[in-house]
Amino acid sequence: MQTLAALIKEKPPYVTILIAYTNAAPVQDQVVEIGEVQYQKSDRGIPDALRTYMADYEEAIRFLSSWSDVPTTVAFQSDLFSDSAMPRLLNYLIRQRTTLGPQLSPSYGKLALRAACPVSGCDLEEKHGLLNDYEWSSSGRSIIVFRCPNHGPHTIRLSHPAEVARLEVNAPTYNLLRSMIHLFDTTKHHIRVTGADYSGMHQETLLHRPLAAWSAATGLARGRTPHILHAPLIVVWSGTKLSKPLYVRDGAHASLKYSGMDRFCSYAQLRDRFGGNGDEGLRIIWDIFIGIFARSRYEGRAEIVGNEWHFRRLPVCIMYESMAMDGYILLCLHGNLFHFVTPVVTLPTDPPTS
Hints:
Mean pLDDT: 76
Shape: globular
Largest sheet: 4 strands, mixed
Low-confidence stretches: 311-354
Oligomer: single chain
Strand content: 25-35%
Radius of gyration: 23 Å
């Protein structure tokens, strides 16, 4: 990163990176259906489920922050819901729920607001907000009534910040609220980096349309739009992103294991493969991606204009020979997708069938 910054004549602005963990995903084997209503326990309610992988994340982020010389902090969904502007924004969403519900959750038509049952050891939450009721206090703040199948109704009062911080939402609602918070903050320039699977019509329908309606109705953030960088996805032969099958089913990408390339799917395996203090394998991947920018500039595919990198003549296909990685890595940048293959790896003649 320092090498890239040195190529730019003007000093780049001060940058920090915030890693926002979505710890409201359902825990495997903790989703139940009762009377055609889905309930779940989230990672947030079962700390051991989150701690299983957090050490790996923290270690990898520490290395990347050190190599890039960019300070990094982390946050969870509760931190976003602790923002002082959140009750005001939630009030707006609740008052507009008959319109926003079908937009943000087309399959169910409801605002997917949820909160875990506060009874110790329960932590069940209704996933899609189908049973939620909304009441209003004398101050005009909403009171959300949730229902636990085991312990009955419980409430979140928007006038109580500690209770608001317990709320969880589905991904489209989370993206909308996060963008609203960023637009409220005029002291910083927020650039959100997310996967390219959130680009295109998905983003237009589930984010920009309700944002524009909110600004027009309230007069807030008028003329401002969120700045979002859609990072390239690493995809497999089927076109799906590499990470998706890993948490959808067990044993996904078994062929990578047969070819000895399963370390691309697991930081723990990458670290174990190279030993040392854990950074050797990750450093190889880091150098490869930094090399994309350097080589693209050398070959005339990129140039620096002011403080910006301008790319042209895509797709870019670069092959790296890495003895440490046991062969070649072919990275093809096409639009906003990275494809990687290992063309010189020989698979077993008869791979296991189980």
